[in-house]
Specification:
With 140 residues, this protein is mostly helical. The protein contains 7 helices and no strands. It has one domain (3-139). The longest helix is centred in the N-terminal third of the chain and has 20 residues, at 19-38.
């Protein structure tokens, strides 16, 4: 799936996206979430290696949170993102067999989740929920 790599590129380039592009990304992200809830098979019948959906979901989360001003205008979307974060933290995916501890990929769910935790904690260091998220990630 290309979406996590696209998210990584947006974050690495640190160029704010316009509302139209963010809306497009939101629609793709919502569709990916629908696919993930439907089951493990990819929509085209391709073989899934394990983390494709959660990589895309966490990549989208990081991009949307990085665009905090845009997200401030969309309370329902912010709540969806927070719920998705909590779902992943409460039940993180298992590492796939061929994944190594020192994998250099930066478009994986654990990388995106770590960035997400840092962004949320930096914005609200007093928020116990986000401190807990950072602690959970550190201990995994």
């Amino acid at each position: 799936m290309y979406f996590p790599i696209r998210c990584r590129k947006i974050l690495d380039e640190q160029q704010l996206q316009n509302n139209e592009l963010l809306e497009e990304l939101w629609q793709i992200w919502m569709r990916i979430r629908e696919f993930s809830e439907a089951g493990p098979a990819l929509p085209g019948g391709e073989e899934q290696f394990g983390d494709e959906y959660v990589n895309a979901i966490t990549g989208g989360i990081a991009v949307f949170l990085w665009h905090g001003e845009w997200l401030r205008h969309h309370d329902e979307r912010r709540r969806s993102i927070e719920m998705a974060i909590k779902t992943i933290v409460d039940a993180p995916p298992k590492r796939v067999e061929f994944a190594r501890e020192h994998d250099v990929s930066t478009w994986t769910w654990d990388c995106f989740l770590a960035e997400t935790a840092a962004m949320l904690w930096a914005r609200k260091p007093e928020d116990v929920c986000w401190r807990h998220l950072v602690a959970n990630i550190r201990l995994r």
